[in-house]
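Example 5.3 — ArsR family transcriptional regulator
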Amino acid sequence: MLSLAPEVEVLTRFGRALADPIRCRLLLSLRDAPAHPADLAEELGISRTRLSNHLACLRDCGLVVGVPVGRRTRYELADPRLGHALDDLRTAVVAVDAGRTCPDADEKGCC
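Solution (predicted structure tokens):
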């Protein structure tokens, strides 16, 4: 099996993480400031169990890290440059035909 170049591997992990709207919202929230899971679940309006699954995916993708703070864990982006990358992606102009969807739009999955 061929191994991916490091740059391709990073982009693949980033793409998989961004493939889910909840994970996108999580990354955008963590771009603004580190947060505890209970606060993130409340902000996103999802259960803590569901949030935990998405945080695990983002950790596995290498995009977020959990930082122990006393008996709690605070989550933050693994690298501050990810915030800049999210801003660049968020503001990029893409050529979208309103009548078409992305071929993989129905596939669910994680890293």
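Remark. The first helix runs from residue 6 to 18.
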